[in-house]
Specification:
It contains ten helices and twelve strands. It is α+β, with helices and mostly antiparallel strands. It folds into two domains: 168 residues, 2-Layer Sandwich (Ribosomal Protein S5, domain 2); 124 residues, GHMP kinase, C-terminal domain (Alpha-Beta Plaits). The strands form two sheets. Strands 1, 2, 3, 4, 5, 6, 8 and 12 form an eight-stranded mixed β-sheet that branches. A four-stranded antiparallel β-sheet has the order 9-10-7-11, sandwiched between helices. The two termini are 30 Å apart. The chain binds cytidine-5'-monophosphate (C5P). The site of cytidine-5'-monophosphate (C5P) has 12 residues, from β2 and α5. The site of cytidine-5'-monophosphate has 12 residues, from β2 and α5.
Length: 312
């Protein structure tokens, strides 16, 4: 009898920006306790999973060469975690993962984490597993701190390493301009630089998170713009001093405020509305301070199937 090979499944997954990122001291396990507010953005990756005799990961799109395709790729880690969870051999999964990058690589927007979240959702459909998103979130947290958020999307308060999430009421669609830098930044290096800066002095700290949550509940981008804060920004700017110029250029172009996204080096500029974002993007693109400029909006949903037999 011929076995039926399921059709490939394609998943779209968002990037993230941190509206607020307060970093605590380094923990014994090397991680830092965080209090953060994530927003999922419409800048996305697409991940297709398929049954294949030649297992592995393939990456296409802008800067694809910079993504490792071996066992360190977070999408492959997701394949192995889900294989183990569902009683398959994690070393021999007959799965091929194709990642179409729209999210900048090593850009502080959770691109690698997003690919892992998309792989968990896609493979659950391909293998017809009876799993809830909360089951997947537990596996996701083992793969990386930002993986659970890209699974759920929306707007969320993150604590612990960033993997403990509570949804946040957000009343508005926010419009962003993103400035990609020429090269990525390593997340561990940026956290390490923050530890170094703190040992030497007192780099600025983000304020309390509550006002950020209140601003999101009212939905006024001007109020939110005043409250954007990221403890990693000083560290990212220390490693990549040119970011200061990028941040200034975005505000000069008419953004309400700018922030380094996560560990950087992508800079995210909050704008008053969609028209303003398009104007800021055009002006920033002409300023010659970054590699590429994109517009995006948020919040958007987390990883979801868009193609294949289980598509809605
Ligand atoms: O969890 P993830 O693998 O994405 O983290 C990458 C690195 O970023 C960690 O190895 C650690 O150096 C740093 N990190 C941290 N504190 C966090 C999250 C990440 O120090 N809460």
């Amino acid at each position: 009898m011929l076995a039926v090979v399921p059709h490939p499944v394609t998943v779209r997954v968002p990037s993230k920006v941190n509206l607020h990122l307060a970093v605590g001291d380094v923990r014994p396990d090397g991680y830092h306790d965080l209090t953060t507010v994530f927003q999922a953005l419409s800048l996305t990756d697409e991940v297709t999973v398929a049954v294949a005799d030649e297992p592995g990961v393939e990456v296409v799109g802008e800067n694809a060469d910079a993504v490792p395709t071996g066992p360190s790729n977070l999408a492959w880690r997701a394949v192995q975690e889900l294989a183990r969870f569902s009683g398959r051999d994690p070393e021999e999964p007959r799965v091929r993962v194709v990642i179409r990058k729209g999210i900048p690589v090593a850009g502080g927007m959770a691109g690698g984490s997003a690919d892992a979240a998309a792989t968990l959702v896609g493979l659950s459909a391909l293998w017809r597993l009876e799993v809830t998103r909360d089951d997947l979130a537990r596996l996701a947290a083992r793969i990386g701190s930002d993986v659970p958020f890209t699974l759920y999307g929306g707007t969320a308060l993150g604590t612990g390493r960033g993997e403990q999430l509570v949804p946040v009421l957000s009343r508005h669609t926010y419009h962003w301009v993103l400035a990609f830098d020429r090269r990525g930044l390593s997340t561990p290096k940026v956290f390490g630089e923050l530890d170094r800066l703190r040992a030497e002095g007192a780099p600025p700290r983000a304020g309390a998170v509550e006002p950020v949550l209140e601003a999101l509940a009212t939905g006024d981008p001007r109020q939110l713009a005043l409250l954007l804060g990221n403890d990693l920004q000083a560290a990212a700017v220390s490693l990549r001093p040119g970011l200061r110029r990028t941040l200034r250029a975005g505000v000069n172009a008419g953004a309400l405020a700018g922030t380094v996204s996560g560990s950087g080096p992508t800079c995210a500029f909050l704008c008053a509305d969609e028209q303003a974002a398009l104007r800021v993007a055009a002006e920033l693109a002409g300023a010659g301070v970054c590699r590429t400029v994109r517009v995006a909006h948020g919040p958007v949903p987390g990883a979801r199937v868009i193609g294949g037999e289980d598509a809605p």
